[in-house]
């Protein structure tokens, strides 16, 4: 069967092209060809509809493996859907990385302004540098801690609070302007830096880019901290020489205002000229300072530092910095000895290296200053004696309730005593308590009766025995009695000690002045001294000063030893007014005469202790007699050995007439 002729245009038109197929249909394509196309042709893809609010997980139609020819659409490619609309919101995945916000690391910003002028970097400069570092490294300063006018030679600073914050895990680390702001103490840097890094914290410097997580970074940081410690030591040595030069001129080590004085500075701002630095007593505040010492050393009604601070603050007096007086500031001021015309100097051989800046170091001595004193030397000695007495007295015994509070001791254990309470019932059946009925051994009571044999005696008989002793000492004719050799030695050791002390003081001042001249001459003409000559000369003067200080300490005990004649007037006056004193006044008076009141157990003829209160002996140890409880100091010399106080030490260095040399074996 012959095929029906088809026009050329129909044969050349691709069957799958939609536009050409429609054109062929309109032009009259045969029905069998149109039917055959519908059977073999692939389904036509639908036009993409607008996306719904909930996007589809997969396209509705998957194209087959058939490839399109030239000029035809490739149905194997994924369908191109229009962008999904989410009602104006943008998901995190569609935000560019530039605009994504990262979580900032929290740090503590620490600022320290040094006390040295060459190290005074303003807090604003340090704060700006730390903020710039935080901006560059994606950090955030959550808290600022400032130490203004504070040295870095110790860690008694607010930096310890920053370390505690990091240890609690609140912040990641500590940011400083430089590593030297953290500290200049080698031991303190190592210890506190280990505390920070042991819990994962960091110490970063805003101006010193060091990666401390690497070995070379830790080495660099260690070198920076070591150099900071070296700078601190170098500057400290320079300041030490300056302080020594000022003390040689009779001035305090640091020039600043002193309470009770008018300070004339080296530079006079009024005349714009240099003048001699000096301290003059203030005409109004000076008498107030003297009254403080008199109130503290009052014989019957002494006042403590708390009462003195209240008196000063209520009177409108303030410290040189304009703050209120406290017990710490007043105690340190009065203990310094500046109102007595003295300079308190720390011992150079002390191992604390000047780090006890609160005045608690006991290694110091006093030197005469160039300023005029506000109190005399006798009042200063009374103040020091009162301070020693208060320090050796328990706090509960300072405010006396009974006449012998803080004085009674037990002879067997040499410990203190406490009071017992007597309890009974009256006729009505009520319980009556009598506090302070009797004395008992404190060590036996604290150990459950096992540490000491104990002692017990009523309080009233002990007080009567002390009163009898006082009246015997103040009896008429006691002053005219011939002194014994034991009470009054033939040679006045106190006079000799006073002369020796004056001689040693003059030698010390001479060595101090010579050392000052040597230092000044070496600073002006260093070419005059060969290598090592200046150091040898300086060490010679320093050793001479140390020897003189040791000899002065030996003379102090002899000079302060009291005599019986020093207490004659005091004993007579106390005995005359004894009945008019109240309990606290009697206690204060007795402490000026007596070291202690000793309770000991009496023994019978057979050597057995007498039980009860009748077998207790009361003994008084006065201040003018050698302390029987003090350890005996043995003096040894080439010609003998003796107990200190019985012989003069000079006798041990004098060959006696009966001395015979024993030949060696």
UniProtKB/TrEMBL annotation:
<dbReference type="GO" id="GO:0000150">
    <property type="term" value="F:DNA strand exchange activity"/>
</dbReference>
<dbReference type="InterPro" id="IPR011109">
    <property type="entry name" value="DNA_bind_recombinase_dom"/>
</dbReference>
<dbReference type="Pfam" id="PF00239">
    <property type="entry name" value="Resolvase"/>
</dbReference>
<dbReference type="InterPro" id="IPR006119">
    <property type="entry name" value="Resolv_N"/>
</dbReference>
<dbReference type="Pfam" id="PF07508">
    <property type="entry name" value="Recombinase"/>
</dbReference>
<feature type="compositionally biased region" description="Basic residues">
    <location>
        <begin position="7"/>
        <end position="20"/>
    </location>
</feature>
<protein>
    <submittedName>
        <fullName>Recombinase family protein</fullName>
    </submittedName>
</protein>
<keyword id="KW-0233">DNA recombination</keyword>
<dbReference type="InterPro" id="IPR038109">
    <property type="entry name" value="DNA_bind_recomb_sf"/>
</dbReference>
<feature type="compositionally biased region" description="Low complexity">
    <location>
        <begin position="56"/>
        <end position="66"/>
    </location>
</feature>
<keyword id="KW-0238">DNA-binding</keyword>
<dbReference type="GO" id="GO:0003677">
    <property type="term" value="F:DNA binding"/>
</dbReference>
<feature type="compositionally biased region" description="Basic residues">
    <location>
        <begin position="29"/>
        <end position="55"/>
    </location>
</feature>
<dbReference type="InterPro" id="IPR050639">
    <property type="entry name" value="SSR_resolvase"/>
</dbReference>
<feature type="region of interest" description="Disordered">
    <location>
        <begin position="1"/>
        <end position="87"/>
    </location>
</feature>
<feature type="domain" description="Recombinase">
    <location>
        <begin position="258"/>
        <end position="393"/>
    </location>
</feature>
<dbReference type="InterPro" id="IPR036162">
    <property type="entry name" value="Resolvase-like_N_sf"/>
</dbReference>
